[in-house]
Structures are given as C-alpha cells and as structure tokens.
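Researcher: Can you fold this with zinc ion in place?
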Amino acid sequence: MVHGNPRMTGGCQCGAVRFAVQADPVYPHICHCRMCQKAFGGPFAALANVRHADFAVTRGRIARFRSSQTVQRGFCADCGTPLTCEDDDSDHLSVAICSFDDPGTLAPERQIGTESRMPWFATLDGLPAATSEQAGNPDEIAAIRATSHQHPDHDTQAWPPAGPDTEAGPDAEAAKETR
Ligand SMILES: [Zn+2]
Ligand SMILES: [Zn+2]
C-alpha cells in the first residue's frame, strides 16, 4: 500500500487506470522475448521492477491475462495499454516503463530475451528521424493535440474532465475560442 507522497506515478493512455509507487523502480530493462513482443505489440517490452508492497493502483483496476501458468500480464481493459508483468512467486512486479508519467528517468540497464530480438533492432538509431511536426501535416498534428483523449502525465482529480465538452481533451477551452 502506498502512503503519502508517491515516488512516481503513472497509468494507461485513457486514464481509467492510475498507479503510484512508494520506492524507486529497480532493474530497468528491455525484454525481447516473443511473449513480451505479443503482450506489448512492439519489438520489445521496457520494464522496471517494483515490490508489490510499494505498488498501489490509485484509480480503476488492472485487468489481467494469464500468459502462462506462473505469469499474468496486466493491462487497461478500456484502452488496452499494457501495464505490468507479474510472476506469481515473486515479491515484485514488473511495470511498463513508458506507462510512468516520467519514463525518461528509467534508462534500461540490461536486455534479456535476446533469442527473439528483431534482426533490425541495432539499426533503429541510424534511421532517418523527424519530429511529429516535421513528419506530419501541421494542421492535423494541431487537431490531434487539441482533441486528445490521452490522460496527462500527472494525477488528476477526475478524468475525463467534468463539463459540457467532455469529448475534447485538456485544450478544449482553447479550441472552442478559435472555433
Ligand atoms: Zn486505459
Ligand atoms: Zn519477456
């Protein structure tokens, strides 16, 4: 159970699930194993470990899929964001690094599951690179930002925000003014 000021907070994309940890996550790592690839729908899972005693769900509940006899995968049932990997026999769970509100502080220190590592993994950093604005239509990017339903990277009293215009995101007031 988490009391007082949490060390870090996080949650899913839609905000139905929020969590807090009482101690700094340890062993930040990436796992290339085929089960993590499927569970995350990505080339690898980025995870860090937290003791169950230091982890608390502060909004909603984590849905779980038992991916094997000993492991459950936690996710948001509303939006599908992968959140945890939980071994039944462990005193800790692994939390998806990028589900934290400030994931940049959790730099991976190790990679595992390398038997399934994508053959192109090592080439990623050399690919041509662009910001969202550089890669997309600026009007479309602005429209996405103005109508985002993604929960912000901090705790909120209620989500989606109460009011007549709950269809739009945090910039709804600004968008209305330019309508
Ligand atoms: Zn969600
Ligand atoms: Zn894995």
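Model: Folded with zinc ion in place. The pocket of zinc ion (ligand 1) is lined by residues 12-14, 16-17, 76, 78-79, 81 (CB under 6 Å).
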